[in-house]
């Protein structure tokens, strides 16, 4: 943190989690330590690379102002992740009631006798935060207490068993407390009940499929017999006439 007479600036290093082809932003907080209006202006050695909002403004007495610095998307990574870019923040007292429209370059001209405070800020590239490593499929520690569903909509009993065991082991304390054991027994009973229900449903589905096939075959055979009898009767009537 910079502790000048007018403004406290935090941080003094602009840290960008560098990623290719992606805009990255970081923020500065300016705190007015005085009872006066303070004007500020932000400059950089590489204005085409960075966007500063606001790049100039007024910090009211005993208040703060946030400045957002955005680095444009970069196509290439710098050598050894080193950056030579720098920022300069200038601040000066101004009259009460001043606004951003009142700010001009002459206010920050030291040669004109203005007392201008300056603070230099470095730019650092840091590695972006790493995403959490994925848990290998089938690992009991990272598995979810949900079984997969088969094509006919019935949960797979083996997977349900593995998920229940993983759920129980995850929440089972090291001292094998009675409460944890009761939870394991309850999950085991639910697992066995689910397996029995799955088996019963599969048997009922197979039975319905077989009965449906028989019914369709029976209807087709009766239709053939009916057509045959109808043909015989019509033939007999035609001969008789």
Mind explaining what this structure looks like?
This protein is elongated. The termini are far apart. The chain is built from 2 helices and 10 strands. The strands form 2 sheets. The chain has a 5-stranded antiparallel β-sheet with strand order 1-2-4-8-6, with no helix packed on it. The chain has a 5-stranded mixed β-sheet with strand order 3-10-9-5-7, with no helix packed on it. Helix 1 runs antiparallel to helix 2 (178-240). It is of the alpha+beta class. Residues 141-150 have a biased composition (Low complexity). Residues 6-126 form the MSP domain. Keywords: Coiled coil, Membrane, Transmembrane, Transmembrane helix. The chain crosses the membrane at residues 217-238.
Question: What would you say about this model in short?
Answer:
The chain is α+β, with helices and mostly antiparallel strands and 241 residues long.
What average pLDDT do the residues reach?
A: 81
Helix content: 25-40%
Spell the H/E element sequence: EEEEEEEEEEHH
Name the overall outline.
elongated
Classification by helices and strands: alpha+beta
* Alpha carbon gap, first and last residue: 119 Å
How much of the polypeptide forms β-strand, as a percent range?
25-35%
Instruction: Describe the strand arrangement of the main beta sheet, using strand numbers.
Output: 1-2-4-8-6
How can the largest sheet be summarized?
5 strands, antiparallel
- Got a strand count? 10
- In terms of per-residue confidence, which ranges show pLDDT below 50 for 5 or more consecutive residues? 143-155
Q: In terms of quaternary structure, what is this?
A: single chain
Query: Radius of gyration over alpha carbons?
Result: 40 Å
Number of helices: 2
